[in-house]
Amino acid sequence: MDSVGVAAAAPDAGPGPAWQSKCPWGAPSTTSISCSLADVMSEQLAKELQLEEENAAFPEVVAAAEGPFITGENIDTSSDLMLAQMLQMEFDREYDAQLRREEKKINGDSKVSISFENYRKVHPYDSDSSEDEVDWQDTRHDPYRADKPTTTPRRGFIGKGKDITTKHDEVVCGRKNTARMENFAPEFQVGDGIGMDLKLSNQVFNALKQHAYSEERRSARLHEKKEHSTAEKAVDPKTRLLLYKMVNSGMLETITGCISTGKESVVFHAYGGNTTEDKVIPPECAIKVFKTTLNEFKNRDKYIKDDYRFKDRFSKLNPRKIIRMWAEKEMHNLTRMQNAGIPCPQVVILKKHVLVMSFIGQDQVPAPKLKDVTLSSEDMKKAYYQTLNMMQQLYRECNLVHADLSEYNMLWHDGKVWLIDVSQSVEPTHPHGLEFLFRDCRNVSQFFQKGGVAEALNERELFNAVSGLNITADNEVDFQAEIEALEKINEDHVQNHGKKLSTFSSDGDPPIFDE
Ligand code: ADP
Ligand code: MN
C-alpha cells in the first residue's frame, strides 16, 4: 500500500494541501495510477526485503532514522502493521457500537435481558491497558477516520423506482467488499482501497478473505514468539501506535523529532497539545521511550532487583514489564524531586514504557549538558554549589541517590543546573546505594575540580557532606571498605528484622531504626 495511497503523506513530502492533515493515508491520487497489482506487490516485497536487510545491518541507525515524527499533517505511515491496527481500532469501535444498538433493540423494556458482552471485540490498543499505572482518556474525535462509502441497508436495496440499486449492484457491492476488508486481521495489509474507491468483485473478495484468514492463523503463531522477545528498536509499531494516540488525543500537538538515541532510551521533542481541566500540558515536552535489549537490562538488574519498592514485583515480571518499570521508576523519582523543588523535568504522563515530561530547553533546542557547555568561572562555581545542594536535597528530602550523576546527566538551562535521567536512582538503603553515591560524588568532584572550582570538595568530603555520614578513612580503598561495611550492617538488619534502617549512621551511635 505504500507505493500508492500513502506516498502523498510520506514524511519527506513536506507540507502539503489541507486535506493531507485530515487523512494520514492521503487522499486518492487524482493522477491515474498505471501500475498493476503485481507491480505493487513486488515493489512492496522488495521494499520489505531491503528494510529487513538494513535492519540487520544497522539496527541503531534505522531506529533513529525511522522516528515516528507524528504530526498533524505528516504521519509516518511506513508501518503497515500500525496502519492496520488503527483501522482495526476504528472498526472495533464501530462494531461494538452497532452491537450495543442491537442489544438495546432486542432487550427493549424487557425485564430479562440478553447481554452481547461476549461478542464485543477486544480492542487491540486497550487490551493490555490494565497493566498501566497511569492511563489517559482519549477525548478527541479521531480525525484520521476514513470516510466510508455508503452501503446498502439490510433490506437489500436503496433508491426508488427506476433508480433502485440492489445489493447485487456491481459498484455498490464492490465498494462494500472493499469496506469489509477492514474486518480482516490487523496484520493483513488491505491497502487504501476505500480511499481509492476500489471495487472488489465477490470472487476477488472471497479469495482475499480466505487468504487473510490463513495469514491470521499463521501470524498468530509467529506473533506468539515475537511478543516475548524484547524489541530491539524502541520505536516499534506498538510504540508508534502509542505516540500516535498521544497526538490523536490532542495531548501532544506534534512530535517534531528525535533529541537523543541512547542505548537504553530514545528521547523525542514534542509540542504540547491541549491543556485539560485535570492535566496541564507544558508548551514543549520531551518523550522518553525506554528500550533495551535483554543483555543491557541484565546489566541494570542490580538497580531495580534490590530496590525494595519493586522487589516483590520484580520476580513475577516479564521483560516487557520490566522495561515499563524503568519508566515507572523514572516517573516516581522525578515526582519526588519535583516535590523537593529540585530543578528537573516535570512528569506529564506515563504510558507503558513511554514517559512524557516537560522539555528542558527552548524552541526544540534541548539545554546543553554540563559537559558540553563552557561556563564562566563564576557560573561554574554557582553550578558547583547548586549541585552540592541538590545532592543533599536528593539524599535527605527525596531519600534518593541519583546513581548515574555526572556532567552527562546535568543540563544547564536558565542559569542553573537541571538533573535528568533518574530511572536508575535508588534509595540510600539499597544494598549498593552508598557505593552508587560514592561514584556520583567522584564524578561530580572530578568535574568541578577539573573545571577550576577551587572550593570543590574531594569525593570523600563530598560523600560525607551529602550523606551526613562521617567516614574518616583518608584513602579511597579504606573509604570504600567502610561504605561496604555500612551496607552490610543494613543488609544484616534486613535479614534479621525484615526491614531496612531508615538512615545510616557511622559516628558511633547505634543505627537509627525505623520503628
Ligand atoms: P539516557 O538513559 O539515554 O541517557 P536521558 O534521560 O539522559 O536518557 O536522556 C538522553 C538525552 O536526552 C539527555 O542527555 C538530554 O540531552 C535529552 N533529554 C532527556 N530528557 C530531556 C528533557 N526533559 N528535556 C530536554 N532534553 C532532554
Ligand atoms: Mn543520560
Descriptive report:
- It is found in: Cytoplasm.
- One of its GO terms (biological process) is innate immune response.
- This is Serine/threonine-protein kinase RIO3.
- Interacts with CASP10. Interacts with IRF3; RIOK3 probably mediates the interaction of TBK1 with IRF3. Associated with 40S pre-ribosomal particles.
- It is a single chain.
- The chain has a five-stranded antiparallel β-sheet with strand order 3-4-5-7-6, sandwiched between helices. It has a two-stranded antiparallel sheet with strand order 1-2.
- The relative contact order is 0.07.
- It has 515 residues and is an alpha+beta fold.
- It contains 14 helices and eleven strands.
- Among the domains are: 159-230, no CATH class; 234-366, Phosphorylase Kinase, domain 1 (2-Layer Sandwich), CATH 3.30.200; 368-499, Transferase(Phosphotransferase) domain 1 (Transferase(Phosphotransferase), domain 1, Orthogonal Bundle).
- The chain binds adenosine-5'-diphosphate (ADP) and manganese (II) ion.
Describe the structure in brief.
Its cofactor is Mg(2+). It contains 14 helices and 11 strands.
Instruction: Please indicate the percent range of residues in DSSP E strands (runs of 2 or more).
Output: 5-15%
* Relative helix content: 40-55%
Look up the CATH topology of the domain at 234-366. Phosphorylase Kinase, domain 1
The CATH homologous superfamily of the domain at 234-366 is termed Phosphorylase Kinase, domain 1
Q: Biggest sheet, open or closed, and with what strands and sense?
A: 5 strands, antiparallel
Give the CATH level 1 class of the domain at 234-366: Alpha Beta
Taking the alpha carbons of the first and last residues, their distance comes to 65 Å
What is the number of E strands?
11
Global Rg: 29 Å
Uncertain stretches of 5 or more adjacent residues: 1-23, 29-35, 57-76, 123-152, 223-234, 507-515
Individual helix count: 14
Please trace the helix and strand order, writing H or E for each element: HHHHEEHHHEEEHHHEEEEHEEHHH
Average pLDDT, all residues: 73
Protein name: Serine/threonine-protein kinase RIO3
Keywords: Antiviral defense, ATP-binding, Cytoplasm, Immunity, Innate immunity, Kinase, Magnesium, Metal-binding, Nucleotide-binding, Phosphoprotein, Ribosome biogenesis, Serine/threonine-protein kinase, Transferase
Cofactor: Mg(2+)
InterPro entries: Kinase-like_dom_sf, RIO-type_Ser/Thr_kinase, RIO_dom, RIO_kinase, RIO_kinase_CS, Ser/Thr_kinase_Rio3
